[in-house]
Amino acid sequence: MIKPPALQEGDRVAVIAPADPPDREKLIQGIHVMEKMGLNVVTGRHVYDIEGDDLATVDQKRLADLHDAFSDPGIRGVFCAEGGFGTARIAPMVDYSIIQKNPKIFWGYSDITYLLNAIQNQSDLVAFHGPMLASDLNDEQRTAKTEATFLPLFTGEALTYDSRIAPLNTLAHGTGEGRLVGGNLTLLATGMGTPFQVKASGNILLIEEVAEPSYRINAMLTQLKQAGVFDEVEGVVIGNFQAEPDEYAKIKKVLQDFFISAPFPVVENFPIGHCQPNYGVPIGVNAKLTTSPPRLAVDSGVM
């Protein structure tokens, strides 16, 4: 995999919206947070102006902002404003040679999972599953720990996630090593059978989800299982599964029943996904998952 260069103070970074258009005020708040990190933030031409357009026009505008950000040699990172839906539609239209020739940080999660996997599969570029400006860095939502998760983009330090950050729970014991891949469960399931599906064989699979009922979680996990995803994984990292308390209890039972006899390590409760704090992780780099104690060690995503 190709690692992008680390960020430095004063670097220009772009904000784009490959999924839903963001709330303007929340995005401005998120931009201010990035500026406090010493970054010069510019927004894509079409971040705000896709509301009301037909789908074909929306897709072309989203695609243009993505291509512009990677083509501009002065841009050192590309950060997504928020999630939503529709990112999958532009994946077949992306010129991945532009991305491969201009490696830089690409950061997002949720619906952006589809592009994280597409970029890795087609460009060999390490991507980043992490909090987004409008949805996670606005004044109402953000926490100091969420802000701090951007620091390794500057320092290049490797990451260790263990019970010091959250009370982790082991569903299946063991040790697994491989590249960290995955993201939002819905997007992983919908990507099956496409050129952009997750490459889980020999790797550590990350899954997270939001506002999906337990029966849907069960159906999507079953789809991945029957597609062979769990036949050759080296471990599963379960991030946040946000739901109302009663439904969350049902989801926990689904996850426990599904993974209790897994022949690979499975650890849950990582604060990764639709939560605060929301920790960022590089996707595509080497990682090691252990259960005694439960811990995920991840290589740096930048060089």
Automatic annotation (TrEMBL):
- For the keyword Transport, the answer is no
A Pfam short name = Peptidase_S66
Q: Which parts of the sequence belong to the LD-carboxypeptidase C-terminal domain?
A: 177-289
Keyword terms: Carboxypeptidase, Hydrolase, Protease, Serine protease
Q: What InterPro entries does the entry give?
A: Carboxypeptidase_A_C_sf (IPR027461), Class_I_gatase-like (IPR029062), LdcA_N (IPR027478), Peptidase_S66_N (IPR040449), Peptidase_S66C (IPR040921), S66_fam (IPR003507)
Q: Keyword Membrane, does the record have it? A: no
Residue ranges of the LD-carboxypeptidase N-terminal domain? 13-130
Q: Which family does it belong to?
A: Belongs to the peptidase S66 family.
| Protein name in the entry | LD-carboxypeptidase
What is the native source organism of this protein?
Answer: Sediminibacillus dalangtanensis
